Amino acid sequence: MRKTGFQEIPLKELIKAEWNYKQDDTELLAKLIKNIERNGQIENIIVREIKDNVFEVVNGNHRYDALQYLGVKKVVCYNLGDIPLEDAKRVAVETNETKFATDEIKLANLIVDLKGTFDFTDLAETMPFSEEWLTNVDNLLEFDWEGSEDELPEVDRGGDNEANKDTADSDKVVVVCDNHEEALAICDKLKGEGYECFVPERKKDETA
Predict the structure, then answer these.
(1) Digitized pLDDT (tens) for each residue of the chain, 208 residues in all
(2) Which residues, at least 6 apart from 8, have a Cβ–Cβ distance to it below 8 Å?
(3) Rounded-to-integer distance, Cα 30 and Cα 70, Å
(4) What is the pTM of this model?
(5) Spatial separation of the C-alpha atoms in residues 167 and 26, rounded to whole Å
(6) Which of 74, 79, 75 is nearest to 6 (CA)?
(7) Which of 95, 111, 120, 126 lies 20 to 30 angstroms, CA to CA, from 134?
């Protein structure tokens, strides 16, 4: 048995967990592959030791797929050692699901900051956002959210992938449109289908 902790392990000694509950998503996997191609393996894979030279992936099954596709021979892992299956499942949930909420306006500002350096097509290849959302993110910042009495909803980031499922389950979303008139038209359509919808007022200095 190997020591526990961080270490490099040959990819061929890793096996995916049959009990992994994270859904497969070909679009996100393609983005993850591009991400690792650009940045290398930044996040480690958490494993547990099944027997000599056999390690089950506890967290990182999709990183395993991406690394295998890229032909990586050794990967950085955190070895939990010979722990029971129940403990491994607990670690999987703890490390996968302990997440902090995103400030969507700050995120939008960060994306806008990247405009001068990166092409949005390039960003869309490695980020869990659609190119359309990245292109139209400026519209989020044009609204006077602080002056609005409505609670700031979460953002629909576009694309049909796992990264957007949390937003899809939310009670509220922001639909980013090309212009104010389009936003009003979409809002009217949603209201006609029984949804609550609003379009923030334009800023006073915004021209028609």
Answers:
(1) 788 999 999 999 999 999 999 999 999 999 999 999 999 999 999 999 999 999 999 999 999 999 999 999 999 999 999 999 999 999 999 999 999 999 988 999 999 999 889 999 999 999 999 988 888 887 777 766 566 555 544 555 555 544 444 444 444 555 656 566 777 777 777 777 777 776 665 544 444 4
(2) 74, 75, 76, 77
(3) 11
(4) 0.70
(5) 19
(6) 79
(7) 95
Which residue, 163, 184, 188, 132, is CA-closest to 32?
163
Please give the angle made by the CA atoms of 133, 152 and 208, to the nearest 5 degrees. Answer: 65
What the chain holds in terms of domains, given with CATH numbers, is 5-97 (3.90.1530.10), 104-192 (no CATH)
Residue whose tokens read 């992938």: 161
